[in-house]
Design a protein that fits this description.
This protein has ten helices and six strands. It is globular, with a radius of gyration of 18 Å.
Amino acid sequence: MLGTNIFKLENLHLTNTSLCSQRETKSRQSFTVAVEGNIGSGKSTFLDHFKSNPNVEIFPEPVEKWKSVKGFNSLDLMYKDAARWSFAFQSYVTLTMIEHHQAIETPGKVKMIERSIYSARHCFIENLSRGGLMPAVDYNILLEWHDWIHKNADTHIDLIVYLKARPEICQERIRIRNRHEEQSVPLEYLQTLHSLHEEWLIEKKAGELPAPVLVINAEVDETDLKKTISKLEPQILCGISSNQTS
Ligand code: TTP
Ligand code: MG
């Protein structure tokens, strides 16, 4: 069960103030917020909230690209036969995530991306490997790619927003939104993904996090989530007000 707190900062001794000052010591030109959380936790809804904010540039996840790679639906192939297709699919996810990390930000704007290369690595690739759905050789090649990218490409993020919701709630949302590729996703898959998000972002088992984490209870309905986002906007955008022009 989630706690009753609407949010808490999860990076040991960080407070909201230190979070902002930490970000302010970096170039004001570049603030990147990565929105993370299980499938169906509400990341797209979260990004939508900032669509009309002139100080924010949003980068929704390129699911449509994954569904149409020169006519091939790689997401669908992966769900139909993960052992055969998850390497191809996760390679493409990695490429499209780097594209988002490296997209040039408009100076003065906050760049907000749905997911990051980090969750692809620590949650999805890990899940496929642990579940026996990705052969060890595929897994190790992907890890080498990720290590290389981490060392050689700019994939920095300044804040992680973690939308936390129980897998049962995510499953119900997935059922309602009816993305046909996902109709066979079992609850156990969402449970393992949930645990991997927790291991990565809360228990920090994957090592040092790339940015501080702001945890938001995402078990609420859309109206309440939007209210929470409005309240937390100063933390999320680090003091850049929603009516400030860029
Ligand atoms: P999510 O990245 O969780 O995005 P979403 O739009 O489903 O989430 P939300 O409702 O919170 O906006 O997953 C999109 C689909 O891609 C989902 O079926 C899981 C799959 N996926 C992988 O299989 N591997 C990956 O590395 C990623 C990032 C997604
Ligand atoms: Mg989404």
